[in-house]
Amino acid sequence: xxxxxxxxxxxxxxxxxxxxxxxxxxxxxxxxxxxxxxxxxxxxxxxxxxxxxxxxxxxxxxxxxxxxxxxxxxxxxxxxxxxxxxxxxxxxxxxxxxxxxxxxxxxxxxxxxxxxxxxxxxxxxxxxxxxxxxxxxxxxxxxxxxxxxxxxxxxxxxxxxxxxxxxxxxxxxxxxxxxxxxxxxxxxxxxxxxxxxxxxxxxxxxxxxxxxxxxxxxxxxxxxxxxxxxxxxxxxxxxxxxxxxxxxxxxxxxxxxxxxxxxxxxxxxxxxxxxxxxxxxxxxxxxxxxxxxxxxxxxxxxxxxxxxxxxxxxxxxxxxxxxxxxxxxxxxxxxxxxxxxxxxxxxxxxxxxxxxxxxxxxxxxxxxxxxxxxxxxxxxxxxxxxxxxxxxxxxxxxxxxxxxxxxxxxxxxxxxxxxxxxxxxxxxxxxxxxxxxxxxxxxxxxxxxxxxxxxxxxxxxxxxxxxxxxxxxxxxxxxxxxxxxxxxxxxxxxxxxxx
Length: 499
Hints:
By secondary structure, this protein is of the alpha+beta class. 38% of the residues lie in helices and 18% in strands.
């Protein structure tokens, strides 16, 4: 059944949207949260296991101290209140990829309490997102449904379970209800998630790659007639694993709930699922309340004690935070606000910085990553960092241009060769013989031939009309297979028409 939708502009005009995000960040520890099983993305199924991660009788968990330190660092970055005493609890529910039939999480005594995060929107507006908690828990395994369409359970013949991910440490960052966003709710949600991604990467506690499942979010949405009204009934769309998916989930749910309420219906408190193919959410199960999970302190784990001295020690290890880093880099690179915002919106900040560190100029690095390489990434349907070219490769291309060995056309062809897997820029140049024609005699001959073939254009140039210069340059480029330097060609032409 297709949901009825209200136009977005009408929905946010008639209703006040309130949303919340529960963000799961997978930590980059070497071993799992409660056992020494090794963690490796993409490993053979069911090879990264111990009796603890399988929930076998008699096995006892031991807390990974590094995971606790990572969580404290994130709490500091989110301005959270760090608890001196925190406690793990059992959250009871059945999923086939959870071997114990309960999750070890934190309930009434989380490690990180209230905090906030200021997020910057595209137009420079800063919006404060209130944080309720950022607690530690372990992850479930992974189900693979075989025989259905696109790996879905509908129509599947059977399902397989990989427990490699079971027990991987997570931090769940739970916001308070986010009010006052209005029509900008999807934009704020996307900016918040990108800010979380940037922070955990800066802290070096997670790769935060949504396509790998390192980071995902549950999106809660409710509507009310007026900001003075009580909060409405919320839906919770589970495990959305892309920034655009999170933004589109909010956009869709606001339209769906608005149409439902406007028609006199009621919103169910339920879990839903985002379908990328149809760009819509679909209903799942009725949402459970906390009491349904029968939380109780895990009897196999003692309370976690964190001293003030230890928190202070970790605070001294905190790196530069993303907002401060962006301001510093913008000043160093000399970018205006729009140029810097374009780099950030393209998720190219790390790549541009690495390219500059490898020896390229900031303007050149920005040009490549936001121009040719961005178009290539869009065509391939991948992120910039997934392209088979490194910042060092881009910096090498820039050096070849600066040394007068490549022009813009040859540089683009060189980059294309690197993307095609032909090796480094130097390898591509050597393989194809890319090099600007530097022999003065050969270049002069090509210019003379082009001018002789185009006497009418030469007359216009002599009369002071420089617009047709491109035709002469084009003819020389054709004669030299694109290996002439356009500036050198222009210089030679000007010398000849001034005689």
